[in-house]
Design brief:
single chain; alpha/beta; Nucleotidyltransferase, domain 5; 5-stranded mixed beta sheet; 5 strands; globular
Length: 165
């Protein structure tokens, strides 16, 4: 299965595409869609949408996985993050892809085995699980890969549970 993981942000939206059989994962591409805070917010949303659409066209993922909105102290930040997530959900729906959403806790437990793991721990486990010679430079891209790995692992487990013996 090919999974597009998305770590939403209004200035930096991380993405990662992996191929996975549920236990072995291989990174296809990872990076960040960057927008300028000097641009109007609606323009930044358009840039994110165009970037995600280009990724879908180029890599043809079967499914997309996105981190759920989590509690934020700043309400304005939370609203912007929600709007970026809406763009990601829309792009997945336009492409006819299946979509999964996971909480930060679910992602960390799936990738690290501990729900309160620090970003550096997630980054190291992403590097290890993907068998990369060095860690992914961007935390946003690493987080997106973690979302993709979480989804691939969960889907594989669900398939095994529902297969007749």
């Amino acid at each position: 299965m090919r999974v597009l993981g998305i770590d939403c942000g209004s200035e930096r939206t991380g993405y990662g595409v992996i191929d996975s059989d549920g236990s072995l994962h291989r990174m296809i591409v990872a990076g960040v869609i960057r927008t300028s805070p000097r641009h109007a917010f609606h323009q930044r949303l358009l840039e994110i949408a165009e970037g995600l659409r280009a990724l879908v066209r180029e890599y043809s993922p079967d499914t997309a996985a996105v981190e759920e909105v989590f509690y934020a102290v700043n309400v304005k930040t939370l609203l912007k993050l929600s709007q970026v997530r809406g763009v990601a959900l829309l792009v997945a729906a336009e492409a006819g892809m299946q979509l999964a959403e996971y909480s930060p806790l679910e992602i960390k437990i799936s990738v690290v085995g501990y729900g309160r793991a620090e970003k550096c721990q997630v980054k190291l486990m992403v590097q290890s699980l993907l068998r990369l010679p060095e860690a992914v430079e961007s935390e946003d891209a690493s987080d997106a890969l973690a979302v993709a790995i979480c989804h691939a692992t969960r889907e594989s487990t669900l398939r095994r549970l529902v297969q007749p013996v």
